[in-house]
Amino acid sequence: MIRIEDLSVSFGDTEAVKHVSLDLADGEILGVVGESGSGKSVTALTLMGLVSDSARITSGRVLFDDVTLREAGKPCDKALYRTYQGAGMSMVFQEPMTSLNPTKRVGGQVEETLRLHTKMTPGERRECVLEAFRSVGLQNAEKVYASYPHQLSGGMRQRVMIAMAVILHPRLIVADEPTTALDVTIQNQIIGLLREINQKQNNAMLFITHDLNLARKLCSRIAVMKDGEVVESGETESIFEHPAEAYTKRLIEAVPSRMKRKGTIASGEGTKDKTPILKVKDLSVFYKDGNNSLFARKKRQCVVAGADFVLYEGESLGLVGESGCGKTSLSRAILGMNREVDGKIIHATKYPQMIFQDPYGSLNPSKTIGWLLMEPLRARAALDPSWSMTRGEMEEAACDMLRKVGMSDKFFHRKPSQLSGGQRQRVSIGQALITHPALIVADEPVSALDVTIQAQIMELMRKLQREMKLSYLFISHDINVVYQMCDRIMVMKDGRIIEIGETEEIFAHPKEEYTKLLLGNS
Hints:
Helices cover 38% and strands 25% of the residues.
C-alpha cells in the first residue's frame, strides 16, 4: 500500500533523511526506531505531506496505492494530499499540547474530522466522538468533550489525539511516539487498542518510537534508523534476537530490563541503622477550590491522603503510580511548593532540590547554560547570607558541575536550544546538584529521553549519588526504570500509598492487586 523509494530530505545544507526505502502492506505494523535526530519523524511527516515548506525532496518518491504523493524536484500537491489526509491516512503526533488548538474545546476539534469527511448530523458526530473517547480509555467522555486542552493531563491529551486519528478508521495510521506521555497501564491499553483497530480494520500502521519494548510488543517488522539512514530492517524477533549492526545491539542493550538490575547504594543493606534524611508523617495535601477565603479553605480538594514514609541517607526511594495519583503533588509538598498540607514533613537537611521531567520547559531559553547553573548559587546566597560566593567562584563552580555531568566548558556560553535533549537533562541535573543538597526529588527525569540517553542519565545519577552521598526520591511511571534505580519502592493509587517495600520483594511478591497490575503490564 505504501512505498517510500530512495527518499532524501534536506533542510538547507543539512540532509535529514538519506536514501530511505520502506514499504508497508495492508494490515501490517512497521516499527521505525532510533534516537532523536535519526530522521524518523521527518520521514513520517514527508509521507503525510506535513513536512515544512523549507524541506527539499532531493531524491526518491512516496507512493500510496501506486499514486505518487511526493516526488523529488516537484512541489507538494496539497490538493491531492487533502483527499488522503484524515480519511485515507492520519497521524498521531508526539506532543498533543502543540497539536491541539488551545482556544477550542477538544470535542469540537475531534468533530472537525467528521464534519469534513462525513455527512453525519451534529448529534451523530457528538455520539461518535464520545464513543471514540471511551474506546481510548477516557472514562468521563462527556467532561473531556467539553474541556479545553489545558484542562486535561498530558496522557489524556494524547488519548484525544489517538481518538482523532482513528475515528474515521483510515487505512494508514502514522503514530509518532504515541505513548510517550502515558503511564504503563494506559500505555498498554493504547497498544492493545491500536492492535485491535489494526486487526478489525486491517489498516496499516507506521509506528515511530524510541521505546524498543513497545516496538517489540506491537510491530511485525522493524526498521532501525541512524543519522537519517535505515541501517537495519527485518522481522521484529529476528532483529531483537540476532541484531546485525553494532548500533542496533547498543539500542537493545540500553533498554531498561528486569534482567539487568545494577546494584544501587543501599541494595541489600536494609534500613535499620541508616540515618533518616526525610520523614513524612500522616501527610495530606490539598489544592484550593476558588479564592483564598475561609470558605475556600473548607472546599479544599484532597489529592494526597495519609502518606507515611521515611527516606534514608544514600537511598533511592521509588514512587510509582499512574497520572493523577498524587505523585507530583506529594513531591511539591515535600519541597514546600505547596503549603496546603496537614501532617508533618521533617527534613534532616536544608534546601532539597528537584530534577524536572521536561528540561526544555524548566530551563529559561533566553539564558546561557552558565547563567542557568549559577542561578541556584545566587538564590542560595539570597536565602542564606552566610553562604556567598564571588562571581569568579560561581563561574568555576558552574564549569566544575558541567564536567561532573559529563559536559565540557564549551557549553558554558550556549543556550538550551543549542543542546540535545540528553544534554539539557544533564544541565537540569547540574542545576539541582550545584548547591550540594543531600536530597533530590527526581520527577520523571528520563521519561522524555531515548533509550541510549536514558541509560547514560541513569548511570550518571548513580555515579553522582555515590560521589555526593545523595538521597533520591525517584518518581516514574516506568516500572523497569524504577527497578534499575531504586532500593525501595512506594506504590501510589488515588492519592494513597498502598504498598511500600524493598525493590526485589515488591517485584517478586506484590501484595496489592494494583501493584500486580502495574508489574504485569510493564
